[in-house]
């Protein structure tokens, strides 16, 4: 029969050559040489036209058999070579786990945020709710409802960023308290603190900022007395500035409270002896407070014959400056990393100033 020798030769030469193949590339070349358009198997197929009709089926079957043999051999070899290549790559790509890792910068709570959170935690522990409101307020809630009528001289002291005649950037967080009281429709108790940003027209310097934070507190119920105010603020002073602190109340004036007081704490640095922090007096002023003015209660819908209350207001900026020894209020807002980085995170999520 014609040319079965040719078929045998092709098969033999393939078997010889594949035995020497050692890479995926070489295998690919071999595949082209035998199965490609101009390959040897394709050549065998083409020569079928020279055979007689009777000879063709058997010849074709034999060529197909060789083609199957070659295809399978190439597939098998391909798998073996790919696996070997993968293993070699895995061997080469080992990682040196002893190399030092990259360090990255850990953030820490901003000392002002931390101070606000500490104060919030203390009052939450006494059962207060946290109330928030608007930074853009109406003249009514910012002044009028707090016993500051248009003619009141206190409006000069709190020179304000007006947006229009009736709207302004709030100068204190008191409007939140006025709104909260009003929403309770004359029914006590009200027991809230209001933290937030406030705005006043001021020339910025080491101790003044046109934007700062405030936390005000308000308790309204039947039978609230000055002694409740005093006890609450004494606990507060000891929580924030240390268990040995004493407080001192001095008479003062606010339009929204009567009577009004300034509250001092005994100096945490010199324990009352006199130093640079307390300017030699042994006392540090930390907040203002008083009994809610009957006009304020009445405007918010509470009967001052039945209800009484106390209120207080403090500046967390100043408290943080005292606690962490910060000499300039502008540090809180200029975001200089040299400032921020002084306050390292502590294990309880707080901050310490290592330079104090
Ligand atoms: C201060 C003084 C104070 C209040 C704020 C207040 C609010 C209402 C009613 C009555 Cl709705 N009082 N707030 C009272 C006394 C003092 O702040 O020196 N803050 C930095």
From TrEMBL:
<dbReference type="GO" id="GO:0004826">
    <property type="term" value="F:phenylalanine-tRNA ligase activity"/>
</dbReference>
<keyword id="KW-0067">ATP-binding</keyword>
<dbReference type="Pfam" id="PF01409">
    <property type="entry name" value="tRNA-synt_2d"/>
</dbReference>
<dbReference type="GO" id="GO:0016740">
    <property type="term" value="F:transferase activity"/>
</dbReference>
<dbReference type="Pfam" id="PF02912">
    <property type="entry name" value="Phe_tRNA-synt_N"/>
</dbReference>
<keyword id="KW-0648">Protein biosynthesis</keyword>
<dbReference type="GO" id="GO:0006432">
    <property type="term" value="P:phenylalanyl-tRNA aminoacylation"/>
</dbReference>
<keyword id="KW-0963">Cytoplasm</keyword>
<dbReference type="InterPro" id="IPR006195">
    <property type="entry name" value="aa-tRNA-synth_II"/>
</dbReference>
<keyword id="KW-0436">Ligase</keyword>
<dbReference type="GO" id="GO:0140096">
    <property type="term" value="F:catalytic activity, acting on a protein"/>
</dbReference>
<comment type="subunit">
    <text>Tetramer of two alpha and two beta subunits.</text>
</comment>
<keyword id="KW-0479">Metal-binding</keyword>
<keyword id="KW-0460">Magnesium</keyword>
<dbReference type="InterPro" id="IPR004529">
    <property type="entry name" value="Phe-tRNA-synth_IIc_asu"/>
</dbReference>
<dbReference type="GO" id="GO:0000049">
    <property type="term" value="F:tRNA binding"/>
</dbReference>
<dbReference type="GO" id="GO:0005524">
    <property type="term" value="F:ATP binding"/>
</dbReference>
<keyword id="KW-0030">Aminoacyl-tRNA synthetase</keyword>
<dbReference type="InterPro" id="IPR022911">
    <property type="entry name" value="Phe_tRNA_ligase_alpha1_bac"/>
</dbReference>
<dbReference type="InterPro" id="IPR002319">
    <property type="entry name" value="Phenylalanyl-tRNA_Synthase"/>
</dbReference>
<comment type="similarity">
    <text>Belongs to the class-II aminoacyl-tRNA synthetase family. Phe-tRNA synthetase alpha subunit type 1 subfamily.</text>
</comment>
<feature type="binding site">
    <location>
        <position position="258"/>
    </location>
    <ligand>
        <name>Mg(2+)</name>
    </ligand>
</feature>
<dbReference type="InterPro" id="IPR010978">
    <property type="entry name" value="tRNA-bd_arm"/>
</dbReference>
<feature type="domain" description="Aminoacyl-transfer RNA synthetases class-II family profile">
    <location>
        <begin position="119"/>
        <end position="322"/>
    </location>
</feature>
<keyword id="KW-0547">Nucleotide-binding</keyword>
<dbReference type="GO" id="GO:0005737">
    <property type="term" value="C:cytoplasm"/>
</dbReference>
<dbReference type="InterPro" id="IPR045864">
    <property type="entry name" value="aa-tRNA-synth_II/BPL/LPL"/>
</dbReference>
<dbReference type="InterPro" id="IPR004188">
    <property type="entry name" value="Phe-tRNA_ligase_II_N"/>
</dbReference>
<dbReference type="GO" id="GO:0000287">
    <property type="term" value="F:magnesium ion binding"/>
</dbReference>
<protein>
    <recommendedName>
        <fullName>Phenylalanine--tRNA ligase alpha subunit</fullName>
        <ecNumber>6.1.1.20</ecNumber>
    </recommendedName>
</protein>
């Amino acid at each position: 029969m014609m040319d079965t020798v040719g078929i045998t030769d092709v098969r033999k030469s393939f078997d010889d050559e594949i035995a020497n193949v050692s890479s995926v590339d070489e295998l690919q070349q071999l595949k082209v040489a035998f199965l490609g358009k101009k390959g040897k198997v394709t050549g065998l197929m083409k020569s079928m036209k020279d055979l007689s009709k009777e000879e063709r089926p058997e010849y074709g079957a034999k060529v197909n058999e060789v083609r199957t043999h070659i295809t399978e051999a190439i597939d098998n070899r391909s798998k073996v070579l790919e696996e070997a290549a993968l293993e070699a790559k895995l061997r080469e790509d080992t990682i040196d786990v002893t190399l030092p890792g990259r360090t990255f910068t850990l953030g820490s709570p901003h000392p002002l945020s931390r101070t606000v959170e500490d104060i919030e935690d203390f009052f939450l522990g006494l059962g207060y709710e946290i109330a928030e409101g608007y930074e853009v307020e109406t003249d009514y809630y910012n002044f009028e409802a707090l016993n500051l009528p248009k003619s009141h001289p206190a409006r000069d002291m709190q020179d304000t960023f007006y947006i229009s005649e009736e709207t302004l950037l709030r100068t204190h967080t008191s409007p939140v308290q006025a709104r909260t009281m009003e929403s309770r429709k004359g029914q006590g108790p009200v027991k809230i603190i209001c933290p937030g940003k406030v705005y006043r027209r001021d020339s910025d310097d080491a101790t003044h900022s046109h934007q700062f934070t405030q936390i005000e507190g308000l308790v309204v119920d039947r039978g609230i007395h000055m002694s409740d105010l005093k006890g609450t603020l004494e606990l507060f002073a000891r929580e924030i500035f240390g268990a040995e602190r004493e407080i001192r109340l001095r008479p003062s004036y606010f339009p929204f409270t009567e009577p009004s007081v300034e509250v001092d704490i005994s100096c945490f640095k010199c324990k009352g002896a006199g130093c640079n922090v307390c300017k030699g007096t042994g006392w540090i002023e930390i907040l203002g407070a008083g009994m809610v003015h009957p006009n304020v209660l009445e405007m918010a819908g509470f009967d001052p014959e039945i209800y009484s209350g106390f209120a207080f207001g403090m500046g967390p900026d100043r408290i943080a400056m005292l606690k962490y020894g910060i000499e300039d209020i502008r540090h809180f807002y200029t975001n200089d990393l040299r400032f921020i980085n002084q306050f390292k995170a502590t294990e309880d999520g707080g901050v310490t100033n290592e330079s104090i």
